[in-house]
Amino acid sequence: MKESYGTLSETINALKKEGYTIDFNIREEHGVHHQADMILSPDDFKIDKVYRFEGATNPEDQSILYAISSPKFGTKGLLVNGYGISSEETTNTLIEKLKTHT
Predict the structure, then answer these.
(1) Counting beta carbons within 10 angstroms of the beta carbon of residue 79, is it exposed (0 to 12), middle (13 to 18) or buried (19 or more)?
(2) DSSP assignment of the chain, as one string?
(3) Whole-model pTM above 0.90?
(4) What contacts 29, CB < 8 A, 6 or more positions away?
(5) Cα torsion at 97, 50, 38, 44 (round to 10°)?
(6) pLDDT tens digits for 13-33?
(7) Which of 35-49, 52-66, 78-92 is the least confident region?
(8) How much is the mean pLDDT over the chain?
(9) Is 31 within 8 Å of 24 (Cβ atoms)?
(10) d(CA 51, CA 12)
């Protein structure tokens, strides 16, 4: 995994080619694979890489992309959140519970 792929969309596209194909969303502090409506516990995941993006013209246009994997379920996916004033509390709570890969 590279340190930087460019923009948020370029990074998402590059990580999808590396197998991070699931688009995770948060519901009640769980990672959700919404296509199968499968709820997974934070204990089932680890953060492989974190990417931060700032809008060139708007400081409120800030986002953070998490490349997340679950060795237990053999799956990899992405989770996008704002950061700073744009962050979502539910996502922040889940991210704190995830194990970061070092």
Answers:
(1) buried
(2) --S--SSHHHHHHHHHHTT--EEEEEETTEEEETTTTEEE-GGG-EEEEEEEEE-SS-TT-EEEEEEEEETTTTEEEEEEEE-GGG--HHHHHHHHHSEEP-
(3) no
(4) 42, 90, 93, 94, 97
(5) -50
(6) 999 999 999 988 776 655 665
(7) 78-92
(8) 76
(9) yes
(10) 10
Structure tokens at 98: 């995830």
CA distances from 49 to 14, 36, 59 (A): 13, 24, 23
> Would you state the pLDDT for residue 73?
83
Tokens matching residue 46: 């680890």
